């Protein structure tokens, strides 16, 4: 199971752009899984099948990511991803799902809840982008020099993407999994898309919601990899202080991509959290 990507057989038209999605499980409450950057729904492949034994699990690739459409001039910022999530929930006819969100998916889910009034049964955040400051040194550098990066020779670009994704885990990824994360960002279209999403990263999108965490209308669980080199655990500690009544779990031995290094911790915490 570990290396089988989740099937994304369905296409949703979002303002003339194709978004790929899939679902597993035929019974139980709905669970919606939202990945982060620079990843795809592939991150949920070890987790979704186990949840699907008891829940209806929905997952998708963010606009501009994975198998969803990538094109020139596209808005793939956090300012649009919450609108996409809200429209997907309506398309799926899902009301008050359990939402599980990682990294950018965290900001997306929080924005959909606080700005678009999407209601959740619960919200589980995994190493989320939620409070400033955020963004790695690479992100800050690319934002200053997008053209130089987007037009770099392919071998230079691939070396950058490889090094970047390697930093997302505390222990090395399996080669097949590593390739699955790198592949959407290769080739002319993928290379341009990689730098497009970085240039559009802006802390204004979390600034808009940071002061509203006390307005969250559902139980919140926060999981954070203690060895996260992208968003340090101190950010998790601070976020946990800001959200009233939160359940906070620090995950030892895991980096930013907890789904790869401690999927069993996520599954156990989700089953427990959903039931309580």
What would you say this structure looks like, in words?
The longest helix is centred in the first third of the chain and has 15 residues, at 78-92. By secondary structure, this protein is of the alpha/beta class. 40% of the residues lie in helices and 16% in strands. The protein has an eight-stranded mixed beta sheet, sandwiched between helices.
Keywords:
276 residues, single chain, 12 helices, alpha/beta, eight-stranded mixed beta sheet, 40% helix, globular
Brief write-up:
By secondary structure, the chain is α/β, with parallel strands linked by helices.
Largest sheet: 8 strands, mixed
Shape: globular
**Rg over C-alpha atoms, rounded to the nearest angstrom:** 17 Å
Percent of sequence in beta strands: 15-25%
Which spans of ≥5 residues are poorly predicted at pLDDT below 50? none
Biggest sheet: strand arrangement: 1-2-4-3-5-6-7-8
Quick one: how many beta strands? 8
Which series of helices and strands comes N to C? EEEHEHEHEHHHHHHEHEHH
Overall mean pLDDT stands at: 95
Number of helices: 12
Helix content: 40-55%
Class from helix and strand fractions: alpha/beta
Terminal CA distance reads 28 Å
């Amino acid at each position: 199971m570990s290396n089988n990507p989740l099937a994304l057989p369905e296409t949703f038209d979002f303002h003339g752009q194709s978004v790929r999605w899939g679902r597993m499980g035929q019974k139980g409450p709905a669970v919606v899984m939202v990945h982060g950057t620079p990843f795809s729904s592939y991150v949920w492949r070890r987790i979704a099948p186990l949840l699907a034994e008891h829940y209806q699990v929905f997952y998708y690739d963010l606009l501009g990511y994975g198998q969803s459409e990538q094109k020139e001039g596209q808005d793939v910022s956090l300012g649009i991803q919450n609108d996409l999530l809200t429209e997907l929930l309506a398309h799926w006819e899902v009301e008050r799902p359990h939402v599980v969100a990682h990294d950018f998916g965290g900001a997306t889910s929080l924005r959909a809840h606080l700005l678009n009034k999407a209601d959740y049964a619960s919200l589980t955040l995994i190493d989320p982008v939620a409070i400033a400051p955020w963004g790695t040194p690479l992100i800050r550098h690319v934002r200053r020099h997008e053209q130089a990066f987007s037009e770099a020779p392919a071998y230079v670009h691939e070396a950058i993407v490889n090094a970047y994704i390697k930093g997302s885990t505390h222990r090395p990824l399996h080669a097949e999994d590593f390739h699955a994360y790198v592949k959407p960002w290769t080739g002319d279209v993928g290379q341009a898309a990689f730098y497009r999403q970085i240039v559009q990263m802006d802390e204004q999108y979390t600034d808009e919601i940071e002061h509203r965490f006390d307005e969250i209308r559902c139980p919140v669980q926060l999981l954070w990899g203690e060895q996260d080199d992208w968003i340090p655990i101190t950010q998790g500690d601070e976020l946990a202080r800001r959200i009233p009544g939160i359940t906070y779990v620090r995950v030892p031995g895991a980096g930013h991509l907890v789904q790869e290094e401690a999927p069993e911790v996520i599954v156990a915490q989700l089953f427990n959290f959903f039931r309580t």
